Amino acid sequence: MITEKPQYKRELSPPLQLLTLISITIALIFLGGIVGGGYITARYGTVVLQQIKASQLNSPDAIEAMWILQIMSMTVPLLIIPVIFGRFVMKEPDAYLKTNIRFPLVLLMMVFSIMVMSTPIMEVLVLVNQKMVLPDFLRGLENWMRASEQSAQKITAALLKMNNWVDVLKAVLLIGLITAIAEELIFRGCMQTIFIRWTKNTHVAIWITAALFSAFHLEFFGFLPRLMLGVFFGYFAAWSGSIWPAVWAHFLNNASAVVITYLYQHKKIDINPDEAHSFNYSLYVLSIIITVALFWSFRTAALQKKDHQQY
């Protein structure tokens, strides 16, 4: 009697997983850019597309077209990529997407408290980053980094030019919520899982993923605060076993920036969201102490669930 040999699943190694994820990301972002550019050309003409390429976002058509391009070339692909990778490539959506809601809801309140109390820490990182000066032999690189930063800020300023609360809600939905979900699925869902399996060390994986997350935004003089945010999001996902605490934190960060920008534009507040703000040393120390305490409380509450693997 002939017996069939057992079939074993051949899983991609972590380096090949990362290469596959990057390849899918580049392909879908490129495809989204082509589709978005084609749609903008058909609707507005080539002049508007040229204005976008030159970062000349002064007309309403150019701003509206920039929103379309942003959604079609970045937001939609970043939502689709982790689903394709986690569900169809790796066939482990629970491990790579972490969309379960099996975590104590008190964690969401702790996340809110951490995001508020860590504000001075983020501000000092902004100040340090803005004072960064590269050696003379890297002056060309520094000039490119500053030009890239200014271009990104110009686009962001155009997208966040809000005339009323309808514009605010649109920005909160697209920049706050949908962007948070998309980026967390791909970074804390897929990429962080890959590096955990690759390095066998959750802490190393969190920091590597956070660095790539920050670099992805191509705003080098905001690298450090975004790196720290990525670390926060990474631990929220790792300890809770779910992507949603990280999404909630990401949403709070983005949505608060949108609302503060609107209030400043309409002279409701004097706080300029584009400027770093200094605090006194005692407040920095207090911020660190409270944030660390809250993180420890988050970890304790998250790891109390018996069905959650402790990192």
From TrEMBL:
The keyword DNA damage does not apply. Residues 169-255 form the CAAX prenyl protease 2/Lysostaphin resistance protein A-like domain. GO terms for biological process: CAAX-box protein maturation. The chain crosses the membrane at residues 21-42, 62-85, 105-128, 171-191, 203-223, 243-264, 276-298. GO terms for molecular function: endopeptidase activity. Keywords: Membrane, Transmembrane, Transmembrane helix. This is CAAX prenyl protease 2/Lysostaphin resistance protein A-like domain-containing protein. It comes from Mucilaginibacter galii. The lineage of its organism: Bacteria, Pseudomonadati, Bacteroidota, Sphingobacteriia, Sphingobacteriales.
